[in-house]
């Protein structure tokens, strides 16, 4: 198998690099963002949503579908769910015969992590009696998914059947430098550190509720994690996977060779190969997989 990125992935990476958000690499810009936040607008279109106790939740598929997916969107805890997330949730519902729920949660700097825990916990309680419940998320949402499952143990709620995440942000304290922000087309250490502090609120940035890298994973369900080899989160994700294994969690890490952050959500050949992994929901522990175009 070739270890080279597909041509389409290279084009996508170039586009991402040219549109990288300036606050990711600038203390001045991220401070401006956090001190003067703009109102995030939800995508408009044909996507269906419901009101759950005052929380808007996008839904895909049918409640009678075989699987149920609670999907926590990414965006560094400061950016709203977007069309990319919604289209991916739509695809998941069709490809996995799943009823998918994607809640809208409070964002930093106005919103804090503890508010989101309340919202997601209430929603989760309404789903725990469903068969084949899967908790999914990308980036910040992926990190939250792992923390949330650690938290479930402290409130005596059952675990989901599986956890599946894409490039989870597992350490918002960014405590394992150096991070190669220059070569990451999406993320930057400077911006993420400041955003992490804002999102944590009254919690320490190394509290497991915001940084699952520092939490207890004993008893967590089967876990499938995707990560791009060239993203700045990669080494933290690898470290977290090692923690999961030490805690006897059945975990599989799928590494996109030479790829970028949340690559399975982009329209590239490597993402189609990643989707095939999701078609086998009864995954077992295997050696790390390397997807290339």
Summarize this structure as a short list of keywords or feature phrases.
293 residues, single chain, alpha/beta, disordered C terminus, 33% helix, 17% strand, 9-stranded mixed β-sheet
Could you walk me through the main structural features you see in this protein, from its secondary elements to its overall organization?
The chain is an alpha/beta fold and 293 residues long. It has eight helices and nine strands. The chain has helices at 7-18, 27-35, 83-95, 113-125, 140-154, 189-200, 234-246, 269-278, and strands spanning 49-52, 55-60, 67-72, 98-103, 133-138, 162-166, 222-228, 251-256, 289-291. The protein starts with 6 loop residues before the first helix and ends with a strand. Mean pLDDT is 92; it is low at 283-293.
Count helical runs: 8
Strand residues, percent: 15-25%
Task: Characterize the main sheet.
Answer: 9 strands, mixed
In terms of per-residue confidence, which ranges show pLDDT below 50 for 5 or more consecutive residues? 283-293
Task: Report the count of strand segments.
Answer: 9
Strand order, sheet with most strands: 1-2-4-3-5-6-7-8-9
Report, as a whole number of angstroms, the end-to-end distance: 9 Å
Shape: globular
Fraction in helix: 25-40%
Compute the gyration radius: what is it? 18 Å
Order of helices and strands: HHEEEHEHEHEHEHEHE
- Provide mean pLDDT, rounded: 92
What structural category arises from helix and sheet content? alpha/beta
């Amino acid at each position: 198998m070739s270890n080279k990125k597909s041509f389409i992935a290279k084009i996508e990476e170039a586009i991402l690099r040219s549109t990288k958000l300036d606050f990711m690499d600038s203390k001045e810009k991220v401070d401006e963002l956090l001190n003067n936040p703009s109102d995030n607008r939800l995508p408009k279109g044909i996507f269906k949503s419901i009101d759950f106790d005052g929380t808007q939740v996008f839904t895909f598929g049918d409640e009678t579908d075989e699987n149920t997916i609670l999907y926590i969107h990414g965006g560094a805890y400061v950016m709203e769910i977007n069309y990319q997330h919604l289209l991916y949730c739509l695809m998941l519902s069709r490809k996995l015969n799943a009823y998918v729920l994607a809640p809208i949660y409070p964002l930093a700097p106005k919103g804090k992590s503890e508010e989101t825990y309340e919202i997601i916990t209430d929603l989760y309680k309404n789903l725990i009696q469903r068969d084949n419940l899967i908790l999914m998320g990308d980036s910040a949402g992926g990190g939250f998914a792992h923390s949330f499952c650690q938290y479930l143990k402290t409130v005596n709620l059952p675990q989901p059947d599986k956890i599946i995440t894409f490039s989870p942000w597992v350490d918002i304290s960014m405590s394992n430098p150096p991070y190669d922000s220059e070569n990451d087309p999406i993320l930057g250490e400077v911006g993420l550190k400041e955003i992490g502090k804002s999102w944590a609120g009254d919690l320490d940035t190394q509290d497991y509720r915001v940084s699952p890298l520092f939490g207890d994973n004993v008893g967590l369900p089967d876990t499938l994690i995707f990560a791009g080899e060239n993203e700045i989160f990669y080494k933290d994700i690898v470290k977290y996977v090692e923690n999961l294994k030490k805690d006897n969690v059945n975990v599989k890490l799928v590494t996109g060779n030479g790829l970028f952050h949340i690559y399975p959500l982009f329209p590239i050949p490597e993402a189609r190969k990643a989707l095939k992994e999701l078609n086998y929901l009864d995954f077992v522990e295997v050696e790390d997989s390397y997807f290339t175009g």
